[in-house]
Design goal:
With 260 residues, the chain is α+β, with helices and mostly antiparallel strands. The chain has 3 domains: 113 residues, no CATH class; 50 residues, no CATH class; 57 residues, no CATH class. Helix content is 24%, strand content 29%. Bound molecules: zinc ion (ZN). The site of zinc ion has 8 residues, from helix 6.
């Protein structure tokens, strides 16, 4: 791994308010910026169980930078909080304003209550909040190029995604033939019967397709169970019968176990 030693802008530090409401603590915290002005992501600290100190819980939360308070009251994996910041980015909602002005804006409390429930449900299930209905995408059947001998027996077949590719394949079959020995052999182009399927990441903003590592193209296959097996082998995670997460999203949306 190449470490970037360039010195650019300094990391952002905010005054974080944490701990019980009756006796809040305030401390400077290094945070991750988000694309939403006024919102940042910070590590979660909790009271240690066995000592008087504080501990990192392994979770993250979205902070309202101006107040240092949690914007949504939800904690989760880094992916959950990056997604939460994006969900909090609403027209007319300026997160650089003070808390008193934000909470006085009409509809803001309802928005935060609804989003908080949505993010908490996602955290509880270790999955993103913004899921596609399905990871499956159906593709038309392939074009099949068949080389037949003089008795009509199949000598060789090839499959192509477009008719143009199938034509080129048919021409190359013809060129490779010994014309004197196989004068009455035939090359046919036909449409396959079964549609093919592709599998893509169920997190809406991602949508990466499961690809063949050798060709770099998306895997396509009529056998859906086979595709799921390939995906699991490549580190994808199955959420349900219709949805899978790519390895990056799977890691980003795996809720950390509580640390003690
Ligand atoms: Zn993904």
């Amino acid at each position: 791994m190449q470490i970037n030693h360039r010195t650019g802008a300094a990391p952002t530090v905010v005054e974080r308010t944490f701990g019980p409401r009756k006796a809040p603590q305030v401390a400077p915290v290094l945070v991750e910026d988000t694309p939403v002005p006024g919102l940042v992501i910070a590590p979660v600290v909790r009271r240690a169980l066995l000592s008087d100190g504080w501990r990192f819980s392994g979770e993250w939360t979205v902070l309202h930078a101006a107040s240092g308070l949690s914007a949504l009251g939800a904690v989760g994996a880094l992916g959950h909080m990056r997604e939460a910041a994006a969900l909090l980015n609403r027209p007319g909602l300026d997160w650089t304003r003070p808390t008193s002005e934000l909470t006085a804006s009409p509809g803001v409390k309802e928005l935060l209550t609804g989003l908080s429930a949505r993010v908490r449900a996602a955290v509880a299930e270790s999955r993103p909040a913004q899921l596609r209905d399905t990871s499956w995408q159906v593709r038309p059947p392939l074009w099949v190029v068949t080389l037949l001998d003089s008795d009509g027996k199949v000598v060789e077949t090839g499959a192509c995604r477009t008719y143009t590719d199938a034509e080129s394949e048919a021409v190359s079959y013809g060129r490779a033939l010994d014309r004197t020995a196989h004068a009455d052999w035939k090359v046919e182009i036909s449409r396959g019967i079964d549609p093919e399927w592709e599998l893509s990441c169920a997190w809406r903003p991602c949508g990466d397709a499961l690809t063949d590592p050798e060709s770099g193209f998306p895997f396509r296959h009529p056998d859906r169970a086979g595709l799921v097996a390939d995906a699991l082998e490549q580190g994808w995670r199955q959420l349900d019968q219709r949805r899978v997460l790519c390895p990056v999203c799977s890691d980003l949306f795996t809720t950390p176990l509580p640390a003690y």
